Target: non-specific serine/threonine protein kinase
Amino acid sequence: MPLLSMPPLSVNLIIIIFLFIVSSPTSHGADNENYTTCHQKKYDCGGQIKGIGYPFWGEDRPPFCGVQGFELTCYGNESTTIVIQNQTFHVLRINQSANNMTIARADLWDNLCPVELSDTTLNFTLFDFGPHPHVLNLTLLYGCVPNASYDHIEARGHFQCPEVAGNQSSSNINFFVEDLYDSYIPEWECKSRIRVPVFQEGLYAFWGDDHMTVEELVKQGFEADYHETDKFLACDSCNYSGGECGTDTTTNQVICFCHNGPQSYMCPGPGVYLLFFPQLFH
Ligand SMILES: *[C@@H]1O[C@H](CO)[C@@H](O)[C@H](O)[C@H]1NC(C)=O
Ligand SMILES: *[C@@H]1O[C@H](CO)[C@@H](O)[C@H](O)[C@H]1NC(C)=O
Ligand SMILES: *[C@@H]1O[C@H](CO)[C@@H](O)[C@H](O)[C@H]1NC(C)=O
Ligand SMILES: *[C@@H]1O[C@H](CO)[C@@H](O)[C@H](O)[C@H]1NC(C)=O
Ligand SMILES: *[C@@H]1O[C@H](CO)[C@@H](O)[C@H](O)[C@H]1NC(C)=O
Ligand SMILES: *[C@@H]1O[C@H](CO)[C@@H](O)[C@H](O)[C@H]1NC(C)=O
Ligand SMILES: *[C@@H]1O[C@H](CO)[C@@H](O)[C@H](O)[C@H]1NC(C)=O
Ligand SMILES: *[C@@H]1O[C@H](CO)[C@@H](O)[C@H](O)[C@H]1NC(C)=O
Ligand SMILES: *[C@@H]1O[C@H](CO)[C@@H](O)[C@H](O)[C@H]1NC(C)=O
Ligand SMILES: *[C@@H]1O[C@H](CO)[C@@H](O)[C@H](O)[C@H]1NC(C)=O
Model:
């Protein structure tokens, strides 16, 4: 029988049996402790962000309960930040079942004119921008020469820089456009430009509400997805088998903390097969 005609059911079964066989205890002693730690010490910060588990860690939740690059920091039991590629973001929401979060650039929080202007970047081995056009880029343009054509059209998209951001002669203007249009504005007309993702919904709200400012639009943030990489797939089987996912901090590999000790993939026991039955036979 050619492999391609194999029903997906038996492929699943083989993978699960394989994982079960290769899951052998790696060591014993002081093990429950790690399971208990990762199980109990979720990341909590204020009313919005709480009960956050793998792949996140930070504050009371130790690094071995999460993945490198997912460290959260809590300020005054109120606001959470994450650092991605040297850029600090405010974390506004995390949806653990969808593996996504809403983040907003900390350097543009309440002030669209930071001293150092930079594009928004993510570490694409760990994160991705939310799907287009749900998430889209704005281009913020700074220090542009007045030009009647866009001065008029983009009147609502203008924003002011406080005096601190260099010597801004009043004849220079700042405004945003959707990045589709940014190539229509010649290089020489503006001193700098940066890209900032926002929710399309937020942009619609902005155009529909005369009182909403560009600052407020950017503060709503954008969706970032964290990938379904091997680490998360491996983590699913661990979680279903009753374990707590973590990282072996010496090898940087996924590890499954079980009640009776760490395993490489999932926790052993007849419960594993029972837990998988509903998935296999629905
Ligand atoms: C942090 O804030 C939350 C919600 O505002 C509150 O329930 C919790 O008790 C606070 N924790 C600490 C340690 O103050
Ligand atoms: C991050 O910051 C370090 C030191 O400040 C610098 O060497 C590095 O190039 C920066 N990386 C990125 C991606 O900006
Ligand atoms: C991106 O994430 C990967 C995986 O954690 C890490 O190895 C790499 O150093 C990160 N890249 C940057 C530029 O931070
Ligand atoms: C989280 O994502 C799931 C879908 O993956 C969705 O059903 C749920 O409404 C989301 N929760 C929030 C608070 O957005
Ligand atoms: C995560 O994805 C779900 C489903 O696609 C979406 O409804 C939700 O708004 C997203 N959540 C965040 C925090 O961006
Ligand atoms: C937005 O710009 C970033 C670069 O800053 C790019 O990586 C990303 O793909 C762009 N997103 C869309 C939807 O065009
Ligand atoms: C700001 O720039 C204007 C001309 O562009 C110049 O006349 C003025 O002296 C500058 N002010 C300061 C404080 O540098
Ligand atoms: C104004 O902008 C338009 C479109 O980019 C360009 O064609 C025109 O030359 C500009 N005019 C001036 C006075 O800079
Ligand atoms: C692990 O399983 C529990 C239910 O048993 C679920 O609530 C939780 O979201 C799962 N966590 C991950 C990271 O899949
Ligand atoms: C288990 O916890 C101990 C102490 O908290 C820690 O030193 C060790 O690295 C953890 N084990 C693994 C495999 O991460």
